[in-house]
Write a structure and sequence with these properties.
Elements: H1 4-18, H2 32-46, H3 48-55, E1 59-84, E2 87-114, H4 117-124, E3 129-131, E4 142-143, E5 153-178
Antiparallel strand pairs: 1-2, 2-5, 3-5, 4-5
């Protein structure tokens, strides 16, 4: 069994790479800020309720490309841009660790909207973390439909490429670095 899981992961990755999927290949030749704004604009255009959610947000953390790989233990990371009142104020890093039944790889975009200044400041100080989720996700293209603020934030995930099966305990950690 212990040898089977790495073998299955290798087969999954090789077949996806053979079909053209590469989680480390840049899809666009744009700056990080341009990719973040492109994702926000796509989000704004997706529905009126999401547009209102963005308009009621004091800040956003936008991670246009988050790469995730898992085989029992998984990890994800991504770089992003942080905006306050629609102005770029810094950069962010996302890291995720997960443990449980999971296998696969995927690349997705993630946007965190902050409802109030207090929650946004917690993010800037590094006191913001997500934890404990159980999900089954097969993501391709599109935004999640259940959108609203919970505990001062709204998180939107846009699937890009890959296949991931998971029922895992996971936690995400964020780091913020202000512009110079």
């Amino acid at each position: 069994m212990i040898r089977t899981i790495p073998f299955l992961l290798l087969v999954l990755v090789v077949t996806n790479i053979h079909s053209g999927w590469n989680p480390f290949k840049k899809k666009y030749k744009r700056s990080g800020e341009e990719n973040a704004l492109l994702l926000i604009n796509e989000l704004r255009d997706s529905s009126e309720s999401i547009r209102e959610l963005i308009d009621n947000s004091v800040g956003w953390a936008v991670f246009p490309r988050v790469a995730k790989v898992a085989a029992g233990v998984g990890g994800a990371r991504g770089n992003g841009k942080v905006f306050y009142n629609s102005q770029l104020i810094g950069t962010g890093k996302l890291r995720q660790l997960s443990v449980g039944f999971q296998l696969g790889g995927q690349v997705y975009g993630q946007v965190i909207l902050f409802q109030d200044v207090v929650t946004f400041e917690r993010f800037l100080l590094g006191e913001y973390r997500f934890g404990g989720a159980v999900s089954v996700a097969v993501m391709d293209e599109g935004w999640g439909e259940d959108v609203g603020f919970k505990d001062g934030t709204a998180v939107l995930i846009k699937g890009q490429k890959g296949l991931m099966y998971e029922a895992a305990l996971k936690g995400q950690e964020y780091r913020y670095k202000p512009l110079k």
